[in-house]
Amino acid sequence: MKIDVIILWVVYFLILSVAGIMLGKIMAHIFKEKGVALEEKILKLIGIDAFTAMNWKEYLLAVIVFNFVGLILLQLILMTQHWHPFNPEARNGLSFWMAFNIATSFVTNTNWQNYGGESTLSYFSQMLGLTVQNFLSASTGMAVLLVFIRSLVKKEITFMGNFWSDLTRFTVRILLPLSFVFALFLISQGVPQTLNGSVSVKTLEGKELKVPVGPVASQIAIKMNGSNGGGFFNANAAHPFENPTPVSNFFQLITILLLPVSCVFMLIFMLPRKQEGYPVLGVMTVLLLLGVVLSYWAQVQTIPITHMSFREGVDSRFSLSECSLWSVATTAVSNGSVNCMHSSLSPLAQLVALFNMMTGEVIFGGVGAGLYGMLLYVLMTVFLAGLMVGRTPEYLGKKIESKEVIWASFALLAPGLFNLLFSAWALNFQLGLASLSHSGSHGLSEVLYAFSSTFGNNGSAFAGLNANTTFYNITTGFAMLFGRFAVIVPVLIIAGSLGPKKKSPIGPGTLKTDTLLFGVLLFSVILILGALTFFPVLVLGPVAEHLILNIF
Amino acid sequence: MKKLIYSSVGVVFLFTIVFGILYPISLVYMGKGLFKDKSVGSFIYDSKSGKMIGSELIGQNWINPRYFFGRPSINNYDPMNSGGSQYAPINPQLINEIKKNTKKYYQEGENIPDDLLLSSGSGLDPHISVEGAIFQISRIAKERKLNKDRIRMLVLSQVEKKTFGILGQDRINVLKLNQKLDQME
Asked: What is the ipTM of this complex?
């Protein structure tokens, strides 16, 4: 292994840890802050109550209505593009199902793209539609996480915070300044930020060329920070206007993981006993690092058929290690941006990407969303461990009873089950098969990747699959909504049930949840659950591809 | 419920103004003030005519043998249609594509560098590897009737090194190199 790769990894994870700890501390402070903040006063001016704490039902209702309003607005914006200003290329309005797919995609923080941005969308849609939802979907995930944490940490609590307050504080104090600074940095690297229409040039060979530009930097900044991943251009972060230099690449790599890592540190700072958070942090880190090493190893092999490197789909300014690191980070976190084409990755690197998404995006995961997913696994582990020793399972002093376990199992299993059902449906249905660009095992991977990505709210793709068909627009649209809300609803129900419970004191019979043993248990539960659900289909997809490749 | 819908609409509306208009537009003006050329797309101008000849960041489909060629692109460097081939490593089309690209260089010798045969992820890769440029020197020298060593000097002067020794790859910007090549004559 080359020394520069090791240095890259060490520097990368060091910066990430330090920044994550600092930001986590700031976030814990922001949400603890009592009294009325400026944001809440502004909301009050337009008649919105951001002071009164809500119970879980009111909170859930607010989340759903708010997201629904955002969905409708985005759908309307996309369908009526031709009426709007900021449309120098005169883009037309989109069809209903295409707009539905994009709207669900951005509202659910998935940012799956069935369109090529440079040839489909107006600047108005990119700015007032997509950029806004990039902010709000990330904040929604954060708000849900906060309720879950409060229900676990505080004793006998029924009213768990105000959605508008949580949403606004996070958006205005964390996302906005981070994205603003980052956008300026990106412009300094060469990412365009302009309202001019595309530029016509005459090349040295005398050909006419039309180069699309636009307000790119502002969108890329929040795309990376908010674990969104929806690019301005079709090629996403492989596009030289989205990711012009190795330096912009490195900092975008950091921002993929920055807020998800900060969320875990925020949890640690919010816990009465910090060490309770270490198993969660540890398991996420180990899963991430295993993926990074395996993917890198696979990506630097030589292709036995052509005796060439895995450079297909990788731009010259990026190294193979940066490509594999990005592919692991972007699938572990539900970011979904790509700096090289995942369809052309080595089969085992494809496997890592698929597995990361199939865990339900809990290896740091999306902003907020990753950690509440992981906490569901924690509840599951506590329950299983409780069964083994025959005691009532407790986590952080709160009793885990049948209601919590039922909803946690639903949230952990249902998206996976539907993912397999949908993939099977698409593979047995002419409309599903017509979109494939590969036959055999890679064709299976294409479909599986599409549904894993949408059910996991990731958004990356094996872009060989033509996803802009009515069949895929409807099925993946449903997948994104289900993958998002089939987890958010159970999480808030569980929070509503855990919150009012007493905190039992730690006794000799308490299952310790701050130990290495518990970490190992948690790790095993994630692996076993993932493996039981997906092992057969992974063998038919990327594993088979790996074996075929090595016959030669 | 009425109150809830009002609040949702209000917050979405407020945030649309802040994040949909104020945020990007203020960045447009700050970008213009601080990084004028970069914020509009890093375009390059011809030193004589002063006309735009392309963007430093967007690769072009070079077909004249007097110029250095870029990497293969599945969409022939159409900037309005970015993206890669998406070929899986086991896809037979990938092998056909490589064979097709090999033909382009058949007169120039064996051991063609990988990046001249494999297409990029963006389809708009503005760079080639240093080996990829050095490999093409003899063709350029023949076509332009120039001394090989002079071209080699030019190529080596155009190398963009790995940043801090660990980020990215050594590479050469094809448009800038070709522009310099024209200026040499």
From this structure: 0.95
